[in-house]
Amino acid sequence: AMSKEIFSGSMEELAEEEMLKKIEEVEKGGFEGDVYPDSDDEEADEKRTSSAGLGHHTVQCVPDEGEHRAAHEGLHLFFTNRFEEADAFFQQRQETNPLHSTCYGMVGFIRAIFTFEPDQIQEARKRLAVAHQLAKKHAGYDSTLGSLAKMVSFRKAKPLTQEQLSSRLNVAETKLIDSVLVCLGENVSSLVQGGLGAKWAWHRYDELVSQVHSSDPRSTGQVAVCASDLGGIYYGFGVFNLLLSILPRRVVRLVQLLGFKADRDVGLESLNKVNDLAREHGGGMRAPMASLMLLGYHVMASAFFTVPEELPTHIRLATAILDEEFKRFPDSALFLFNQGRLDRLKGDGTAAVRSFERCMEVNSEWSQLKHLCHYELGWGTMAQGKWGVSRGERVSAARRCSARIPMTALSALSQSTGRFWKERAGGVQLSMST
Q1: pTM
Q2: Largest CA distance in the chain
Q3: 402: how many CB neighbours lie within 10 A of its CB?
Q4: Helices in 34-66 by DSSP H: which ranges?
Q5: What does the pLDDT look like over 378-431, one tens digit per residue?
Q6: Per-residue b or e along 412-427, where b marks 16 or more CB atoms closer than 10 Å to that residue's CB
Q7: What whole-number distance in Å separates Cα of residue 265 and Cα of residue 75?
Q8: Which among 363, 332, 266, 216 is positioned nearest to 52, based on CA atoms?
Q9: Nearest in space to 321 (alpha carbons), one of 383, 274, 368, 377
Q10: Cβ count near 76 (within 10 Å)
Q11: What does the DSSP assignment read for 313-355?
């Protein structure tokens, strides 16, 4: 959540010189040592096309194999509720394999973004830092002397090997999602640092786009890319554009100061393209990640800022995404949770309660996700006028769920709010739109 400082308008009071000074202080925000001599020309970066969500790639997309197929297995464990097995699967090769290390950070990011718990965020950032450094070693970036020699001799860049392209994608992706976590620091400095880290990642994605969106693929030498890596490029552009497009107006002013310009349509198109590639080529390890991001927009964010006329469209698109994901991951706790939120958005309280209860049944390992379900169930049963369930059974269940947290925020909220509405509603069932 954004801090009160941002939403109360304090950013407007910051002088432009002071803000520029802050930006200069964190110009290298993100991971330490992110300096690539062959990519320092930002003017050239700005001239590259940024249309990953528009048009069609010009390289051949081939099915995943090798390490990418193995990464599929680990992510399948995660999205079928075997969270500890997934962590162990990727942790085995965290120090040696850039792709598995990135996936290890990716699942940590999902845990952090679902719960917003400080320890989960720190753990995810540690994983991402390891993955980032490992991917840099395998990315094949030129040294300072090599970059200067290339500029003097006007030599054409060599085509990237599959390992180099995959590693460069991992470098960009780890920086991007780490920047998202940095922005959760709830202060202006964190927002600036995260924004500059995201800008650095944006330029790395632009470099990859030039490999797959060239008007003449032979000019880059890049003629084939596996489905997961191509989907990863679309995923990065989609996340970047979508997240920036839904920021509050005051934050957007700061984003513009950092040189960003977001396009929501490009973001949605790019994320949908990730799923299209998965359907067409039978792979795409980032497809479920793209689905979660789209559901976050259609189900979570739309409940706060959408206009009533757009709500049916959000519901229709979210329903289609969930129907597809349940075919791949039946009884996935992550998607069941989103199904419950979608049911509540539709106004179907009974279906929402069923979805959240099913989410808890299939999830025996991730206690924080259970807490979220208890919270949602508290509101859902309270809206149905089931005060005993809301104030009693859910509170005791939340206590049993984790010995570390004897009473969640739901407990006090459900009791106090339940008493308030019961007194004023006279026990009458509330509608889900109340």
Answers
A1: 0.78
A2: 83
A3: 14
A4: 42-47
A5: 888 877 777 766 555 455 455 555 444 434 444 444 444 444 444 444 444 444
A6: eebbeebeebbeeeee
A7: 28
A8: 266
A9: 274
A10: 17
A11: HHHHHHHHHHHHHHHHSTT-HHHHHHHHHHHHHHT-HHHHHHH
In the structure encoding, which two tokens stand for residue 25, read together? 């202080």
C-alpha 281, offset from chain centre = 23
Q: In sequence order, what are the beta bridge partners of 61?
A: 225
Q: Which are the contacts of 218, defined by CB distance < 8 A and separation ≥ 6?
A: none
Half-sphere exposure for 33 (CA within 13 Å, toward CB): 8
Q: Which position has the token pair 């680990």? A: 74
User: Which phi and psi (to 5°) does residue 252 adopt?
Assistant: -60, -35
The tokens for 40 are: 């320092």
**Which residues, including other chains, have CB under 8 Å from residue 15's CB and lie 6 or more apart?**
none
* Backbone φ, ψ for residue 61 (5° rounding): -95, 120
**What are 208-212's contacts with CB under 8 Å, separation 24+?**
208/165, 208/168, 208/169, 208/172, 208/233, 209/48, 209/49, 209/50, 209/51, 209/52, 209/233, 209/237, 210/48, 210/49, 211/59, 211/160, 211/165, 212/57, 212/58, 212/59
Asked if residues 115 and 405 have their Cβ atoms less than 8 Å apart, the reply is no
For 319, half-sphere exposure in the C-beta direction (CA atoms, 13 angstrom radius) is 10
pLDDT in tens, 164-210: 889 999 999 999 999 999 988 777 788 778 888 888 998 899 888 87
pLDDT at 247: 76
Which residue in 284, 322, 325 sits closest to 72, CA to CA? 284
Map tokens 């991951």 to a residue.
329
Cα dist. 165→135, 175, 187, 228 in Å? 10, 16, 35, 11
Q: Tokens in use for 43?
A: 């003017």
Reading the block at residue 156, the tokens are 């054409």
